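Hi F.,

I've been meaning to write this up properly since the lab meeting, where we talked about keeping a consistent format for the predictions we share between groups. The idea is simple: the sequence comes first, exactly as it goes in, then the structure tokens exactly as they come out, then a line or two of notes. No screenshots and no reformatting. I'm using this chain as the first example so we have something concrete to point to.
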Amino acid sequence: MIELIVFGGTLTLALLAFRFAELHSVPECVRARVTWFSAHTSVLLTIGATAMIIGIVGLAHSTGGSP
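Output, unedited:
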């Protein structure tokens, strides 16, 4: 479950960075990738947030839900 939390958190943070990236400020070699990620940000953010939530809920469930 920790893997899902890390994956979801990393994906969410990376996509937030892509969302606020200005296309002219990135190198030419990665502009196509930034454009693609920017076009699909909402779907990928949903996937990342869902993976993180599933990981957190699974971790809480496996520990009995108590700290």
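Notes:
The chain has three helices and no strands.
Helices lie at 2-20, 31-39, 41-62.

If this format works for you, I'll send the rest the same way.

G.
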